Amino acid sequence: MSAPLRLVLFDVDGTLVDSQGSIVHSMTASFQAASVEVPSREAILSIVGLSLPLAIAQLVPQQSTTVQAQLVEGYKQAYHAYRLDLGAASSPLYPGARDAIEALHAVPEILLGVATGKSQRGLDALVEAHGLERYFVTRQVADHHPSKPHPSMVQTALAETGVEAAHAVMIGDTSFDMDMAAAAGVTGIGVSWGYHDTAALSAASCVIETFDQLPDTLATLWK
């Protein structure tokens, strides 16, 4: 009897790549351009993973929708310019990320995907910059879904791959990722190196400290 298809979904910012420099830089540039007080680094990193309009609305709920829209657009422009300037260095892969992706990709019954608050343009540019085009069979982005923690991204990935929820995992660094996984009925695996404190990952089935721990963690889950 052949092994069932498995799906491993990765969050991107704070999980696969360390993009905090890009994010903080771009938020700061956007807020300064709009003459709005720049939020603290902690506040900015706390909203990573949410779709951009929702993230901005959480950062400055007191601002009008017009100003919020201006901040969204300013962020997109600043992020795009920063990425063009620095290339892959603007969002480096975390240690072990590429090895983990390659090892999982080599297993015939395991499919890989991403579920991210990034835009399609942002994700495609990142995947291309790091040469990861061939690894992900499903890419779910903020352009086409309600923001995390709504389960839409995971549900669509399951539908696209034909994998049952019981055979899928969502790997991420934020409470939004773990709550999205729970809402979609898939197992959430938290990572300790991202932007939310591990105490916020209470919905995760477990939390890994390094990518080296991922294969054994998956093997235990899928016994």
How does this structure look, described?
This protein is α/β, with parallel strands linked by helices. 43% of the residues lie in helices and 13% in strands. It contains nine helices and six strands; from the N terminus they run βαααααβαβαβαββα. The chain has helices at residues 20-33, 41-46, 52-59, 65-86, 97-105, 120-129, 152-161, 175-184, 214-221; strands spanning 6-10, 110-115, 136-140, 168-172, 187-191, 206-208. It has a six-stranded parallel sheet with strand order 3-2-1-4-5-6, with helices on both faces. Strand 2, helix 6 and strand 3 (136-140) form a beta-alpha-beta unit. The chain is globular.
Summarize the structure.
This protein has 223 residues and is of the alpha/beta class. The chain is 43% helix and 13% strand.
Fraction in beta strands = 5-15%
Order of helices and strands: EHHHHHEHEHEHEEH
Mean pLDDT: 96
Number of helices: 9
N→C terminal distance: 15 Å
E-strand count:
6
Principal-axis shape equals globular
Major beta sheet summary: 6 strands, parallel
What keywords describe this structure?
six-stranded parallel sheet; alpha/beta
Give me the secondary-structure topology.
Elements: E1 6-10, H1 20-33, H2 41-46, H3 52-59, H4 65-86, H5 97-105, E2 110-115, H6 120-129, E3 136-140, H7 152-161, E4 168-172, H8 175-184, E5 187-191, E6 206-208, H9 214-221
Parallel strand pairs: 1-2, 1-4, 2-3, 4-5, 5-6
